[in-house]
Amino acid sequence: MEYESVLKEIGGFGRVQKAIFLALSFTSFKAVLDLELMVLTLHESKFRCAQQNSSDYVAQNYSEHCRISRLVGDDTNFTLINETCTKFDYQHGDVISKSMVEEYNLVCDRKHYATGMMSVFFLGCALGMLFGTLGDKIGRKKILIVCGVTDLITTILPAYMPTAETQIFARFLKGFPAAVYYQGLLIMEEMTEEKHRAVLGNLYWLFWCVGYMFSGVVVYIFKEWDKIQLFSTVFCLNYIVIFIVVPESPRWLVLKGRVEEAVDVLKRIAKWNGIKWEHKVSKVKALDVEEEPTGNILDLVTYPEMRMKSIVIFFNLAMFAMCYFGLSTDTTFITTNIVLNVLLNGAVEIPSSFIGWLGSDRYGRKYTTVIITVLSGFCLIAVPIVPTGGVYNIVKAVVAMVGKCLLTTGYCIADVWAAEIFPTSVRNNGLFLATTLAMLSNIVAPVINTLSDVATFLPGLIFGITSIVSALSLLLLPETKGLPLPETVPSSEGLVRGRERQWAIETFSRERAQSLLDDDDMEAVNSQRTIKQKPMEETTIA
Q: Do the domain assignments include residue 454?
């Protein structure tokens, strides 16, 4: 008996799965809120040297000044001496009345502290993702609990840091709970019937888009960075719901040989879905699943096909992340108004979830991702080339929004696609190692944005070319649309480009394969007569 059949019997996407989906999706709302609030409160407003209040100094307008001229001598015999500014006056705008830049004087020779805060945040995210790989050993639910508690502590901590150095350390710690929203995606993949995964995997990030836009609203209302930081702790209340509602993944429990616990979880899900399932418990207990040795990172490189697929996934998620977060940390990517910029950036990502769902569900993961990511690359290259002024500003904004929407769509599908390619025994290891490398690539994203000081077109050129190259490499991966999740690394070796349908026939029961393939596919596979007949295991976790 197959695991997918059990999910269908208890309600493949019943009301309990919907409640779990909402609770877990909210973690992505909180994650992007933390990132964008940091980016917005690090926005640099106009400033000038505070020394100008003395009559000895030459007056300055509000603009970027790191040095000031001082008059030395009397009215008839004087000289001008350039001095380095040590104190600054800031021009408060309508959006933020007190930013972290003002709090810690992160301008001039201290400007690198602001870039450093964002970079170490992503470093913390990378280490947090490594922690997420323990989910294959200790369970998905335990990772959620640890990340939830850590997120609450590290959300409060930055508001009370006295210096820029301690703030950098706090931002580093703030990155650790990043594993929580990817862990949530994994649990949803493993608790939901196969036919719903594409839509859920893409709609999972809808809350991310809402959180993106909401960060602008929070900044506009509270205006001071420390109050903004403390307000964001309110959204940690969602973890209480997660701890109560979200169970351990029954698929993981079965693979660990803990069938009795899996049965209890499945019974609760069936009960909450209003399905009388007790008489079918014996079927789950009859699953003859050997206790799998927990997968490890070496499994990803030991087998040739798994090694190739892993390398392509690692490279692509890293490039997606670098480009995406490079644009997300640029407060003037679409418009110079930072609140309007973040609202538009978040708004253009809302269609990406639906485009990703419809495209991947109808045309498959592979070609949908490749085409839209290549198009996004050309848009990103074009944005800095479009002239400014008049109607060109509208053209520039439209091209930027289209590019960001397409890039986000590709990123959404790639996450779901990767989770479907990695077998269950190493899914946590594979996906979290990929996201760890992605977070490490994010460290350079804020640095790439600073290259605009050298030439305005450089960041867009780098992000655009990277998107195109990474998209083309995706052609090496197999299509996973309509296929069950592979269970182990050896069984996934046959899942390669061009042989997806044959793999379904060879690996799963014929009845199951017929439910996946249409008549033409079945006839084509049968006519090839290349499928080796081998005894099927009586129980397979699909």
A: yes
Q: Which amino acid is at 303?
A: Y
476, 503, 537: which is the final residue of a domain? 476
Residue 451 resides in a domain: yes
296-314 pLDDT, tens per residue? 778 888 899 999 999 999 9
β-sheet bridge partners, residue 89: 48
Q: Both tokens of residue 235?
A: 């959204």
292: left (phi over 0), alpha (psi -120 to 50) or beta: beta
329: burial class by Cβ within 10 Å (0-12, 13-18, 19+)? buried
Give CA–CA dist 130/33, Å, rounded.
Answer: 22
Residue 464 phi, psi (nearest 5): -65, -50
The residue whose two tokens read 């049968």 is 526
For 125-141, what is each residue's pLDDT tens digit? 888 888 877 887 888 89
Question: Which of 243, 240, 241, 266 shows the shortest CA–CA distance to 253?
Answer: 266
Domain boundary among 476, 507, 530: 476
53 lies in the same domain as 198: no
The range of the structural domain enclosing residue 250 comes to 3-43+99-476
Please state, in angstroms and rounded to a whole number, the distance separating the CA atoms of residues 324 and 467. 10
Answer yes or no: is 489 within a domain.
Answer: no
CB 128 within 8 A of CB 147: yes
Q: What are phi and psi of 98, to 5 degrees?
A: -150, 110
357-395 core/surface letters (b: 16 or more CB in 10 A; e: else): bebbbeebbbebbbebbbbbbbbbbbbbebeeeeeeeee
Give how far Cα 297 sits from Cα of 70, 117, 418, Å: 62, 30, 15
Ranges in the chain, pLDDT < 70: 1-2, 51-64, 69-80, 93-94, 202, 278-295, 331-333, 335, 508-542
Are 75 and 168 part of one and the same domain?
A: no
Provide the whole-model pTM: 0.75
Distances (CA, A) of 215 to 131, 248, 468: 27, 31, 30
